[in-house]
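User: Teach me something about this protein's shape.
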Amino acid sequence: MSRIPPRRAHPSTVILFSLLAVIAALAVLIRSPYGQVAEEADPTATPDTGTAQDSAAPVGATVPTAPASSAAPTPADTATTPGVDTATTPAADTSTAPAAETAPSAAVTSDSSVQSRVVPSLDERLAAALPQTAGNVSVGVLDIATGVSATSGGDRSYATASIVKVDILATLLLQAQQDRRTLSASERQTAEAMVEESDNDAADTLWDEIGGAHALATANAALGLTSTVPGADGLWGLTSTTVGDQLALLHDVIAEDSPLNASSRAYLQDLMGSVDADQAWGVSAAADGGDTVLKNGWLPRDETGLWVINSIGRISFQGHELLVVVLSDGQRSEEAGEAQVEAVAKAAVPAVVSAAA
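Assistant: First, the predicted structure itself:
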């Protein structure tokens, strides 16, 4: 048997396969993330306007976008195209989403401008209007007609000193109402000395008569005082309270929806409107006319030598009937504390009235 010699490939066939191999290699290179370097790095190329077809590539060529999971970033992720703000266009976003879809900086500016126009609360306006103070000071103002109120330092507790005498008398009057009786002549005489003259012996007498701390706490629950703690061991002046509770107490002294009946409210207002002249300082300094009812308290603290100075009352200002409370402690002297209470009241009242108008 004769052997058939192997057929040799025609030279043109070899050339054809070689060209096909080169074309395949070029296709792989073009599809690689690095195949776009020469085109996308061209500084004369038209900047990317948001679509892959807008990049500078030869006519008819298809240049696919590199997948987001590619480990090597494309040149579009770096600042190679003039005018592109890399600080506002994250690299991760440009590989998967058009540039036009990135969050514009104008939206942030708009949000900031809205926040800058937020109107301060009435409490914030009140705090901003107050003068510089010494020690600790809290203040509250309530418009009786509108119910609008504002406080500064309203969460802080203070010793009441003698303003608790209003609370003691309110408790006595509530008890008398429950017993369906009026105050005796002796009780009235003692109550008048306690409120009008701020007589401490009279306060001791009525404190014992109402039943002390427990009775005061019971009455306060009915009056809506939630943060007032009666003084222990007969020390009524060390009852602790807040601006909010004192505004609530004044409301009960004035308003028709009070647990106190009309006769009891009128009696309390009469005594608070007849305090001795040398005790008429305090929130009354902010009034511009009309009748004022108030009760003040002052107490030196043995452990510090500093003073508690408080003032509560109803005043008139620019046609508004207002309940005003100023509580303070840590005062260097009685005189300095009284002057500060008046300065705070005079600043707070017009600030609240004008802001609420």
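Now, about its shape. The radius of gyration is 41 Å. Confidence is low (pLDDT under 50) at residues 1-7, 32-119. If you'd like, I can walk through any region in more detail.
User: That's plenty for now, thanks!
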